[in-house]
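An example makes the point: we print one protein in full, the chain in one-letter code, the fold tokenised, without further comment:
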Amino acid sequence: MTFLRLLPALVAAFCSAAPVQAGNDFASRRLSDPGQLDAPSWEIAAETAYLWGSLANPNSYEAGAQFITARMRWGAIESDGFMRGYNQVYFLAMAQPFFRGPENFYYGISAGLRYNFVQPGSRFTPYISGGVGLGWIDSHAEVFGAQGQDFTFNILAAAGVSYKVNDRLKVTVGGLYEHFSNAGQTDPNPSLNLFGPQVGVTYSF
């Protein structure tokens, strides 16, 4: 008799608690869903590259490029398929000593875009990037094939893959292309093209 009197109260309590529990379960599944697009708002990266000169310049250039880069997320593609991922706007500062070649150093800045290809549940994220900027080189116009003046523009392009170590840290491996030119401000205007591998670490927040 006592149980029958308590039954309506037990049913009412269960009905009121069930939606809350269901909502909590849904939120938990959503937060732990590995298929969600991982697109950090901001990143800062430290990268280094070893580069060799080629493409029509007679000097055997070799250089070590150091970069500090800030990236901001700008748009995403959340649909299924290879293009799933997110875009970033970046700004970087670079310092580059030359180990071989007429010049000794290059300092510059660059801004551009980077696209990250994100697949559900994968720690590996392929990327491509490209940007333009300007800088200063200790030019030696009297040397054949050397740069004609200190001020020069740059074009940077890169491709590679990053590996997610944890929620904040990534390591990257890829290839980098650099093009330096003063856009015809001197005659002759020998451009400089450099290629090589690049590695780095990225902190996301």
Q: What stands out?
A: DSSP finds one helix and eight strands in the chain. The first strand starts at residue 42 and ends at 54.
